[in-house]
Amino acid sequence: MKRFIRESAAIVEVELIKLIRDPTELVSRAVQPVLWLVVFGQVLAQVRGIHTGQLSYLAFITPGILAQSVLFSAIFYGIAVIWERDLGVVHKLLASPAHRLSLVFGKALAAGFRGLVQAVVVYLIALVMHVSLRLEPLAIFAVLANVMLGSAIFATFSLIIACIVKTRERFMGIGQLLTMPLFFASNAIYPLDIMPGWLRFIAQANPLTYLIDALRGLMIIGGESVHGYAVDFAVMSVTFTVLLFIAVRLYPTLAE
Amino acid sequence: MDTAAPDKFAIETSALTRQFGHLTAVDHIELRVPYGEIFGLLGANGAGKSTVIKMLTTLLSPSSGSATVGGFDIIKSPGDVRRRIGYVSQLLSADGTLTGYENLRLSAKLYGLPRAERNGRIADALDFMGLADSAHKLVRTYSGGMVRRLELAQAMLHRPTVLFLDEPTIGLDPVARHMVWDRLLDLRRDYGMTVLITTHDMEEAETLCDKLAILHRGRVSVQGKPAELRRELGTDATMDDVFAHYAGGLIHESGTFREVEQTRRTAHRLG
Ligand SMILES: Nc1ncnc2c1ncn2[C@@H]1O[C@H](COP(=O)(O)OP(=O)(O)OP(=O)(O)O)[C@@H](O)[C@H]1O
Ligand SMILES: [Mg+2]
């Protein structure tokens, strides 16, 4: 256990060093939530076409946009892993005695920290836009925990895709193909109960839905978690565990 | 279990074989490398050198056959093998976005060097490889020779029993190459390290290696001391002649496009 923590922490540490050294990617990822909230959110709020109960439309989609930026920034973790493979970094890590789980978990955790930056960005935009946010420390802490878990899920998912496709070109194609459907087949910008049955069915199998559900209750005054925090957390934890298990199996194939 | 002195050889393979689909990249090879030896693996592009190293470093599982490294079975005890080896891959594996020191610190942690020894060992390794002044510069500002020396520093930090070096001097100028050789000889002298090295450089094969094996299409076509191999071929035979004779003619490009491309890219980044 001590060894596992030491090894994972070593991976997280280098990822964070790289992140701090080159924050351009983080800055560019901050543009998207601004567009969604300031342009899309405000325009659709005028239309009043989507019933979001007692919440304003902007407040309704704020957690959805945070989850989206978590998804989009985590999903491209796979690209970084393919890059590391082309450079031979993966080979070096895998020839070391570090446990495979530490390596994969370390990557996921690092993605979690990256996700926290997205959370800060969305909170700031939402404050400027006068979205009624819950600002109790406990609620914010719970939001951050959910964001980390969500980032870890999608980063690990992305790692699995990278292990399967193995080249950057193919990954780019698949990445585009997966992120948009994951986003639209979720409760990010419209509630589950206005979806047609088939879409609701898919959305309920989508881990992003549970992240957004939890965030909606935790971030927004008057927001509620439809499934309940315990269900959201359980679904996400199980998903993460299953994905980790698969990733640990597949990661070593990158060095073959 | 092997009953006859299992621990006599640092590396011992028995009918080690790896297939990729229909291609037999490594075909029933038998190698025995005593502790403390510098062993050279030669062969044309695509002969199977990297595949042998990947199996011995536990990155790739054999299709059949077996091998031990440092007395441990690569299939049954991969963890024990990994703790006892250092590896420099054919690709450039140092992370360009980190400093030399940060690269080494990552290795130190992954290999579980005790915290109290960590910084001392890192400083020693940097000194030993002549990188002390550049320790806190980003690796992407290093020259090719410096990157290779950093990789060696990473690979030797935990004082492995066996070092696997896949074309460690490709693309290096003569001065940088000689420096790498000197360091390897020091490591052998100071720690009795066993080294398995692949190379296309006949001078390296001749002057650095105690023993050579030449691979041709996945099989060992000949093994022996460099001088013996030359003598067997004729009184005035050079290592180039030996290579040409046993490696299947000229160094032809029988590797796949990807392999050749990667080798070129490595050479390019180093140059
Ligand atoms: N992961 C892989 N999948 C399929 N074929 C592979 C794989 N790795 C190697 N090969 C093939 O196995 C053969 C041996 O490759 P290997 O990399 O071991 O050669 P090498 O002797 O190291 O060559 P080089 O001098 O170019 O580095 C080549 O034909 C190569 O294309
Ligand atoms: Mg090779």
Report on the architecture of this protein.
The complex is a heterodimer of chains A (256) and B (271). Chain A is mostly helical and 256 residues long. Chain A contains eleven helices and no strands. In chain A, 77% of the residues lie in helices and 0% in strands. In chain A, helix 2 (24-47) runs antiparallel to helix 3. The longest helix of chain A is centred in the middle third of the chain and has 29 residues, at 100-128. Chain A is globular. The model of chain A has no long low-confidence stretch (mean pLDDT 93). By secondary structure, chain B is of the alpha/beta class. Helix content of chain B is 40%, strand content 23%. Chain B is built from ten helices and eleven strands. Chain B has a six-stranded mixed β-sheet with strand order 7-8-9-4-10-11. In chain B, a hairpin with a 2-residue loop joins strand 1 (9-20) and strand 2. In chain B, helix 3 crosses helix 4 (115-128), helix 3 runs parallel beside helix 5 (144-156) and helix 4 (115-128) packs antiparallel against helix 5. The model of chain B is unreliable at 1-5 and 250-258 (pLDDT under 50). The interface between A and B is medium-sized, with 27 and 28 residues. The complex binds adenosine-5'-triphosphate and magnesium ion. Magnesium ion binds at residues 49-50, 90, 166 of chain B.
N/C terminus separation of chain B: 47 Å
Total number of strands of chain A: 0
How does the major sheet of chain A shape up? none
Shape verdict of chain B: globular
Spatial gap, N to C terminus of chain A: 28 Å
Looking across the biggest beta sheet of chain B, what order are the strands in?
Answer: 7-8-9-4-10-11
Tell me about the largest β-sheet of chain B.
Answer: 6 strands, mixed
